[in-house]
Design goal:
By secondary structure, the protein is α/β, with parallel strands linked by helices. The protein has one domain: Roll (CBS-domain), CATH 3.10.580.10. About 40% of the residues lie in helices and about 25% in strands. The protein contains six helices and six strands, in the order H-E-H-E-E-H-H-E-H-E-E-H. The longest helix is centred in the N-terminal third of the chain and has 11 residues. About 20% of the residues are buried. The structure holds adenosine monophosphate. Adenosine monophosphate binds next to strand 3, helix 3 and strand 5.
Length: about 130
């Protein structure tokens, strides 16, 4: 299966100028643990709940800026890559999320390890 078929929803993004408090609220409301960080309308990084935990453990406050905490080396796969490619990438890099981009390197979505497990083990019931 191709990643473009696996991406189910619009990617949830946050601006680099936002704070840790904004991140926590957004993650809670959306029930997610990973955000794509945008600056000037461009994708510049990613932030997972792990980064928030690390920032707080390091003594950073709720007013710390996302742009100072996010990972800027984005690990991304093309939308035509497969579910297996995504699983391998997650295993190699010890991450639970892969960013999916199109040929223009534009953000298409995010695949989480949970999307892969759901696809493998809870396929949608066949239509009759
Ligand atoms: P995760 O296990 O995906 O929640 O993330 C663990 C760590 O890897 C965090 O520091 C994330 O910011 C980083 N990370 C996760 N996914 C990616 C990705 N696609 N590109 C770059 N860094 C990532």
């Amino acid at each position: 299966m191709r990643l473009k078929e696996l991406v189910r929803k619009k990617p949830i993004t946050i601006d680099g100028d936002s704070t840790v408090h904004d991140v926590i609220k957004l993650m809670a409301v959306e029930n997610i643990g990973f955000l794509v960080v945008m600056e000037g309308g461009k994708m510049v990084g990613v932030l997972s709940e792990r980064d928030i935990i690390r920032a707080l453990a390091d003594g950073k406050g709720l007013d710390a800026k996302v742009g100072t905490l996010c990972k800027r080396d984005i690990i991304a796969l093309h939308e035509d890559a497969t579910l297996e490619d995504a699983a391998k990438t997650m295993d190699q890099h010890k991450i639970r999320h892969v960013v999916v981009v199109n040929s223009d390197k534009k953000l298409v979505g995010v695949i989480s390890v949970r999307d892969i497990l759901a696809e493998l083990y809870s396929p949608e019931p066949a239509e009759d």
